[in-house]
Write a structure and sequence with these properties.
Helix content is 22%, strand content 29%. The chain is an alpha+beta fold. The protein has a four-stranded antiparallel β-sheet, with no helix packed on it. A four-stranded antiparallel β-sheet has the order 4-5-6-7, with no helix packed on it. Helix 2 packs antiparallel against helix 3, helix 2 runs antiparallel to helix 5 and helix 4 packs antiparallel against helix 5.
């Protein structure tokens, strides 16, 4: 009995430390990167300060960024002259990674969340002329090949990947609308029904339901599709400027969206795009007539939003209601073209997997429990909080079933359930 009390006491202590660590993760977001006319900058303190992260970039403007979701120390940056650069040390150093890409501008980068060695980029020869469409690498940017079959001759402003099915891609073009591939970029078809011919500046996929998409266009505002891009309808109620340049979906509540517009700043919807309200306090006068306004949301603190502007970065900690400059460390006249933030970490699920691994259970039963946890972990990597919660709840249900059948003692079952609930609450 004394041994059991000691074990339970030690477990309670470990659970307390686990919860404390989880709270620290929530309070301290991952590193943030900004692609600017002065290269790449990095913040490790939620935008309070920024430092140059340019070694090896050669001083070129950088227009696009992507972070490996499974190894956040690996980054890619795209800029002028068809140049992609890669860092494997969290931006401290960069090396060229452009072999196979013709002279062009890298406007967009996208990483396959399930296989991060697969990367796509969208290109142009200048900000106004088509490039060579989409390029694809399957070896971590060592080599690139054209992946254009079915695409029009157009600037590819954005490439997005369906996080639940990474073989499905969307490309936003200038004046030709959205194109879709269902085979990893081998072939593309127009996905524009209901969308007037438009320059598509951004496309986002709902992390909770990948059949739902939003597209930001240069003249028609925001369009929404609920059938994977087969058809679109405009959703602009409340938006006063239909030149939409960016979109962001709250990873924890996909009814909440933000859109950046040319000159009028940021609008927010809390009903999946049905209605929008201006959320510009502290921000509106910073745009300086520039048409780039990248937006990112902290995955662990979704009320915190960052906007890149012609005068650096602005930050809101109250869901866009108020904004303040977050520019300490940027040179004067810094234009921010893209922002990237480390994905939500999931080390806590690793701890729960280790707990399951130590249980005295049939190996098949253990593997079943671990499979549910790994599925939740993968959903977090793909920024699909709803799926992660559901998979953790399935784990809890399985644990309770084992307890009812007598294969798991009540104390162990309760400790596993409490830990899983703590993780769910933190997502």
């Amino acid at each position: 009995m004394k041994v059991l009390r000691l074990v339970l006491a030690l477990f309670a202590i470990s659970l307390f430390l686990f919860a404390a660590n989880l709270q620290r993760v929530q309070a301290n977001p991952g590193s943030i990167y900004a692609a600017t006319n002065n290269g790449v900058f990095k913040s490790n303190d939620g935008g309070a300060s920024w430092t140059s992260a340019n070694t090896g970039l050669g001083g070129i403007p950088v227009f696009s960024l992507a972070i490996d979701p499974l190894n956040p120390a690996t980054l890619y940056a795209g800029g002028l002259f068809g140049r992609v650069f890669k860092s494997t040390d969290a931006g401290q150093n960069w090396i060229p990674a452009s072999f196979g890409i013709d002279d062009t501008i890298i406007l967009s980068l996208a990483i396959d969340p399930a296989s991060p060695s697969t990367i796509y980029c969208g290109t142009a020869t200048s900000m106004w002329y088509p490039g060579n469409g989409v390029f694809k690498s399957t070896d971590g940017a060592q080599n690139w090949t054209v992946s254009n079959s079915g695409l029009p001759v157009a600037i590819i402003d954005v490439v997005r990947i369906d996080p639940s099915n990474p073989a499905t891609l969307y490309a936003g073009t200038n004046f030709d609308g959205v194109y879709k591939s269902t085979n990893g970029g081998q072939n593309w078809t127009a996905a524009n029904v209901g969308m007037t011919p438009a320059l598509v500046n951004d496309v986002v996929v709902d992390p909770a339901n990948s059949a739902t998409l939003y597209a930001g266009t240069d003249s028609g505002g925001v369009y929404k599709s609920t059938d994977g891009g087969q058809s679109w309808a405009s959703v602009n109620s409340g938006i006063t400027n239909l030149r939409v340049v960016s979109l962001a979906v709250d990873p924890s509540n996909s009814n909440v969206l933000y859109t950046g517009t040319f000159l009028d700043g940021v609008f927010k919807s809390i009903d999946a795009g049905a209605n929008w309200n201006l959320v510009n306090s502290g921000l509106q006068n910073t745009l300086s007539g520039k048409d780039h306004l990248p937006l990112i949301i902290e995955p662990v603190n979704p009320g915190t939003v960052y906007a890149g502007t012609a005068t650096g970065v602005f930050k809101s900690t109250d869901g866009g209601t108020n904004w303040a400059s977050a520019n300490n460390g940027f040179p004067a006249s810094t234009n921010v073209f893209a922002l990237a933030i480390e994905p939500a970490a999931a080390p806590t699920i690793d701890s729960l997997i280790a707990q399951v691994g130590s249980l005295n259970l049939n190996s098949g039963v253990k593997q079943g429990l671990m499979a549910k946890l790994r599925a939740a972990q993968e959903s977090l990597v793909r920024v699909n909080a709803v799926a992660a919660r559901n998979q953790l709840q399935a784990f809890i249900n399985a644990v309770r079933a084992l307890e009812r059948s007598g294969r798991l003692d009540p104390a162990t079952a309760s400790s596993l359930v409490d830990t899983a609930k703590t993780i769910i609450d933190a997502i």
